[in-house]
Amino acid sequence: MSTDDVVITVTDTTAPEVVCTTDLASLTPANSEMTLVEIYVEATDLCARPEDLELLIVQIESSEPDDASGKSDGTTTGDTNGQDGHSAPVDVTGNFAFNELTASFEGSVLLRAERDKKGSGRTYSITAWVRDTQGNPAQTSCVVVVPKSGGGGKGKGKNK
Questions:
Q1: Do β-strands 34-44 and 104-112 pair in parallel, antiparallel, or remain unpaired?
Q2: DSSP helix/strand/coil, 79
Q3: Buried b (16+ CB within 10 A) or exposed e, 104-136
């Protein structure tokens, strides 16, 4: 009877699964106040542990200018974490850390509860990229809205 050694090489070509959620789905009332929003980026991979995945970038864009012309919104600037998220995406990656208890990347940002009264409402689009240990990237996104009309109080619950 003879024996042979067999070498098996696993090549990971599958991107991680990534999901973005927030603690607030909407910012109401539209009172021009800066609101703290928690963002969660959860990622899983077939070949890597969550703590071995790399959060490449998290960016936020606003569908409306900070200070729209005229008087249909507040005369404020810095609506997207202190910057203008309409003219270019705002990089907020530095606000994130990996939470071992939840196995997700978590971060906080400030978004202004403001929208142009003449428009259909403001949307803050959050986009995150994660890469696994083999270099396979994956993208996810979620949104926080300032609706054209809304009830009193902040929208609560997971934004999925």
A1: antiparallel
A2: coil
A3: bbbbebbbbbbbbeeeebbebbbbbbbbbeeeb
In single-letter form, the type of residue at position 130 comes to V
Which residue type, as a one-letter code, is found at position 18? V
Which CATH number does 17-147 carry? 2.60.40.10
Q: Where are the domains of the chain?
A: 17-147
pLDDT digits 0-9 by tens, 82-120: 999 998 999 999 999 999 999 999 999 999 999 988 889
Note the pLDDT tens digit of each residue in 19-53.
999 999 999 999 999 999 999 999 999 989 999 99
DSSP 4-45: ----------PPPEEEEEES-SB--S--S-EEEEEEEEEEE-
- What is the bridge-based pairing of β-strands 96-99 and 104-112? antiparallel
Phi, psi at 40, each rounded to 5°: -125, 125
Question: Which residue is it, tokens 């980026």?
Answer: 41
Q: Which residue has the tokens 């009193």?
A: 152
Q: What is the pTM of this model?
A: 0.85
Q: In what order do the strands lie in the sheet with 104-112?
A: 17-22, 34-44, 104-112, 96-99
